[in-house]
Each structure stands twice: as structure tokens, then as C-alpha cells.
Amino acid sequence: MSYYLKIKNLDIKTGQSNIALLNTGEAMRYGIRAGDKIRINWLKKSIIAEANTTTKRVKPGQVGLYKDIWEKTKIPSNTIVEVSFLERAKSVQAIKKRLLGKKLTYQDFYQIFSDIANGVLTRTETTYFVAASFMHEYTDQDLYYMTKAMAETGEILKFPGMVVDKHSVGGLAGNRTTMVVIPILASLGLTIPKTSSRAITSPAGTSDTMEVLAPVSFSPAEIKKIVKKTNGCLIWGGGLNLAPADDKILKVSYPLSLEPYDKMLVSIMAKKVATSVTHLVIDMPVGKTTKIPNMKIARELERKFKYIARRFKIKIKVIMIQTEDPVGMGVGPSLEARDVLRVLQQKDNYPADLANKSIHLAGELLELCGKAKKGKGAGMAWQVLESGAAWKKMQEIIKAQGGNHNIDPNEIVIGACKKYYTAKKSGRINFTNNKVINIVARILGAPSDKLAGIYLNKEYDDHVKKGERLFTLYARNKEKLRLADIALQKQIIFRIGK
User: Fold this and answer.
1) Residues of the chain with CATH 3.90.1170.30
2) 471-493: per-residue pLDDT in tens?
3) Strands (E), 325-400
4) 417, 474 Cβ separation under 8 angstroms
5) Among 27, 194, 214, 306, which residue is least crowded by beta carbons within 10 Å?
6) What gap in Å lies between CA 208 and CA 87, rounded to an integer?
């Protein structure tokens, strides 16, 4: 049964799934309870929302839409819409099977991801699926089904011929190698349409950093135009409907603090399938304060990456590097963008570790796709970087994405409030706490505040003298600096030994 109600746009943003507010008494008459799913139809358009109820916020005859909905759909207040109760999703039965430890078919996974992507499952039902997934270990076949279903329930970007990609599993501060690797490979004629994420728990994702230089949100048609013109792009994948269930699963899995490795693997590979990748290098930093704490976990992840890649006929190389040290000197979008530009422009003070790791990864990918002979890839990548061809290509990409292609690293604005931290004794830096760096940078405001972050004046294995500068905090205001300072009174970034 359908009901006709008038839209009331509410100046409230939840940051969650679509939520619509009904008058409590009216909802009871309709047989709708808080948490039920409803469909809202207007002008041949439709959305699915979760019903909440109120006695005061909306009157009988109204349906209140939170800002998350009406900003996205552009439904004006007072629009008459058709509201109908949505029967329980078919995928609930598949979730029950998973809770009981039973095997799911590909069709089961497809239905689950489709219902999650389209908002048919409630947040509670999605949470049960995530919890069930961690109660019972995934088989390799499960991972393949999940990757395939997650990709196929969203949009597939088709590119002709060979499509290459490099992806980091994350967890290491700085590490903006992607923004150096892409122009190197694109300048050599390889197609590399790079879709990246924004930071979730780190101080910056590739998209956050690239956004300092140019816009990153584009439609599929616009992306294809950019790639046709430049061979590459550096864009945000979140607005493209690529593996759309992924973000919604993440929102319920992160607060649960559950082991994310299989979820991370499926998320990465589904998006590679969705962008037609044929050759892929995975950067997997391993260390006690990184996302992957030891080689045992790393090798098992490598095995799973290779299995899924083989099922989709993707040639893959997983690079596992034991490290604790951030890559680059800057941590935070603007500071990391400055590092990237200094490497690409070959400035005298560029961070050598960022350049070296980027060259290593680019070289591996060049060899993987047959562009360079074995052992010759890194040399080819260095030549491209030192000749200025990589910076020229990055300028083309920045310009194509609507940014200032003549930008100088020193022109990038960083936080006006700063504080220096110096060594309390002389000695050698024998430990770098990557987790603390990430935590403090986020306290300072990164990644939402692109000007905030940490500049590491020293790095692991450096010898320092008492009073010598170790790192510098940058923030937009003094209060952020104060909060970061409190955190650093209890935890250290660098440990200095003999």
C-alpha cells in the first residue's frame, strides 16, 4: 500500500545511510516501525530510506528528509511524494545462512552486495553480515565470489588494451608514491586510470593529496576523456559507483574493530576489476606499527591477492617491504603534495626515500607488463624522472583535471600555526612510531584540513644532536597544536638510542 506525503527538508546531517522521518502516530497507522525500509517515489525517480519516527519534528502528512538525502537528490520541500513500505530484503536469508556457517553461492553474495549498495538492507542487517563474515573464515572461492559480486553490482569502466595500476594497502604515513608512479608510467604510453580513496584512518589518502593540486571528482565520461588525452588520471573513486557496497560495509565494520584483511583485499581487487586493470603491482608495507604487522600475515595476503588476480586474469606482483619509517618528509595532504612536487620537479631538497620507492614500484610494473626487460625497469623509470618527462606528464594530468599545472612546491599553503620539537639528547634514531605520527597528524586536523600535518625533519637511523629539530607540527589554529602537544606528552614519534 502506498501513501502520499509532503516533503519537509530537515537541516540535519547524519553521515549515515538514507534516513526519512515520519510522524509517530501516522507511521503506526501505516504499519511502519522505526528501522523499517520505505521507498519514496517522485517524478519517475526513487530512493530507499530507513524510517525513523518523531512526535514533533514532522507533522502528519509530512515525511522529513535529512540533509544527506535532499542535498543528493535535490528534492525541494513541499514536493508530494509516494511512500510505500518495503518488504524484508531477500538477502536476509543469505545472511542467516552465513551466520549459521553455511556456504554462500555467487548469487547469494550478489544479492547481499546489491541490496547493500541500493540501500535495501538496514544498517543493522549489514552489521550482521559483517559480523557473520568474521565468525566464519572465508574460503578462496568465497573471496572470488565476493570480489566478482562487489564489482558487478556497480559500474564497470572499460578501457581498451592493457590497463596498468599500482596500489598500496596503506597504513604507512606519507607514502605518496602513487602520485609519482602514475606520471612516470603514463609518460611511457601506458594506460593507468588511477582511482583512489580518501583517508579513512590515516592523515591523507591519494585523493586528499591530489586535491591540493587539482579537482578529483569526475564522471565516468570525463575520466575517459582525461585518460584519452593524458594516458592517466588521479581521481577519487568514491563518487563513481565503483563497488558501491564497499563504502557502506566499511562504515559498519570499522567501529567493530574486526580483522579487516579479507575485507581490504576484496575491496582493492573489486575496484581493479571495475576499472579493467590487466597488470597490477601491490605495495604492502610490513612492520609492527603499520597495517600489516608481520611477514606471516603479509605472505598469506600475497597468496590471496595472487589467487583472486589469477581468477580475473590479472597479472600481479606483490611487493612486501619490511619498514617502520614513513615515506617522504611530509604527513598531511598539503605537506605530502609538496613532497611529490619536489620529487617530480627534481628539486635539490626532494625526499630521496619517496623518489627511490616510487622508482622501485614503477620499475616492477614496467617489467611486469613487458615494457622493460627484467632488471631494467628501475633504470627506465629513473631516466623518465630525471629527464623531466614525468613532471611534464603530471602537468598534463593536473591541467586536464582543472588544476594549476605550473604550481611550485613552495606555493602550497600549509598551516600558519606551527611548533618545533627537538631532541632531548644526542644519539641515533632507532625507532619511528608510525601509528603515533598518524594519530597526531589527525589531531592536528588532517585530512579534512589539508593545511594540517607533520613535517619530519629527521628519519629512522639519523644521528642527531641534543637540541636539534626532530619534527614540526602544522595546524590552522593554536588549539589543535595544544591538543597534539598533550598527545605527544604521553607518546613518542622518535626514540633516540646510542
Assistant:
1) 413-497
2) 999 999 999 999 999 999 989 99
3) 330-331
4) yes
5) 306
6) 39
